Amino acid sequence: MSKKKKTIDREPMNIWNKYDFVMSGLGKKNKLLAKLKHFRKCLKWSKQRITRGYCDYDVWEMFSFLQTIIPDMLQTLKDTRMGSPSYLGENYTNEDGILVNDTCHEEWDKILDRMIFLWREVDEDTCLKKNPYDDAHTEAMREFRDMYGFLGAKLQTEKELEENKKRGGGCYVHFMDELPEYKEISDKYREEEKKLEEYRNSCKDEAFDMLKQYFFALWD
Fold first, then answer.
1. pTM for this one?
2. Which of 127, 121, 125 lies closest to 204, judged by CA?
3. Dihedral sign, CA of 107, 111, 112, 116?
């Protein structure tokens, strides 16, 4: 039985995540020095988050930072809030003759739940919908790379190899969908990716519409 290769996930909200430390030394002659330099950057980014609320690290991939922090903040608001917007729900007179509105809480919960759900769906990593051909496509790519080399280097023609020499190096790129045996899985995977992108975009649009509608209610 083959063992699965353990992968390290990148955590956009954690400056000190293992993934970036591993990547900082990738391809470097002195990996220890590279990691020490990354350590110094982490100290700088930590200070920036403390003093201004965000750091350069967050700005470089702002969409990832926002699509993580917004639903997290919405969830915390829902879990810890003391009240709800008074314009939600319905006013009614209770048995003591007092005008009250406690139905606003349930309505606000549903609105916050919807916003949280949409923001989670925008993020490819937390989206509940997945490409059903992901595993098969990954396996096909691995097989293609093993048989034909990185970027299909072994599929280069004599003419392409000759042109490489004239240019002084490099190679022509060949993709697995160029071969009949991989075209079907490539097409199916690509079609599903288009559907997923359209779905996440529709979630993004609705999430921003709700953010606009309830923006000034996001306080407690």
1. 0.83
2. 121
3. positive
